[in-house]
Amino acid sequence: MHTKILSILLRSDGFSFCITTDSEQNAKIKEFDFEKEISPSEQITKLSTLFEKEDFLQEEFESIEVIHSNNLSTLVPKPFFKEKDLASYLKYNIKLLQNDFIAYDPICNGEIMNVYIPFVHLNNFFFDKFGTFEYKHSSTVLIDSLIKANAQNEETIFSVHVGSNQFQIVVLQRKKLLFYNSFNFRTKEDFIYYILFTAEQLELNPETFKLVLYGRITKDSELYKIVYDYVRNVSFHPQNDFHFILSNN
Same domain, yes or no, for 123 and 190? Predict the structure, then answer.
């Protein structure tokens, strides 16, 4: 019997679903985007409706993985990590509420801990529906996927994963994580500013480093055009971004 796996990417402005089996390379992917960020109660309502109406979600799944995508995370090197101090790692960048639940994932073979706040109300929804399941932060999956994909690459790789109104930069140097951060943007000028500022801080020359683009960006987009104006070596990863993240997990 083949294991059927459902992976769910949760954002405050949309959901994505990916169904794979352990015997097939192809994935069934469906995305549902909203015009704006919606409230927790609206998220629950939309998820309930999708699971009631979408035929592909009526199947039986042997494994469920939920991936939380938000800006409520930070990376902590393992030598400085203590489980009792989770709130202290987030409080300088995030406004914490007293009842916030904080989780963490090991990444980079356990060398770094990713501390974050998941969408707890959505975790509760999936627990009621499926019982036990695994969940992670999207940056955990993204970083580990990129490290795995570049396991034989000694170059400095500057990866940019583009969403609808935010993007992540992951920089690998000699197969190790050098930099990770997530940025909100509204204009193409915002987009190139954060890329060039990051490169400057890391002392990377736009004439020589390799920039790889993932996600919601094409050669026809204004984002690509402005990047190409400033960075010499630009390429696209050939796979769909959601499929790439999950298939390399």
Answer: no
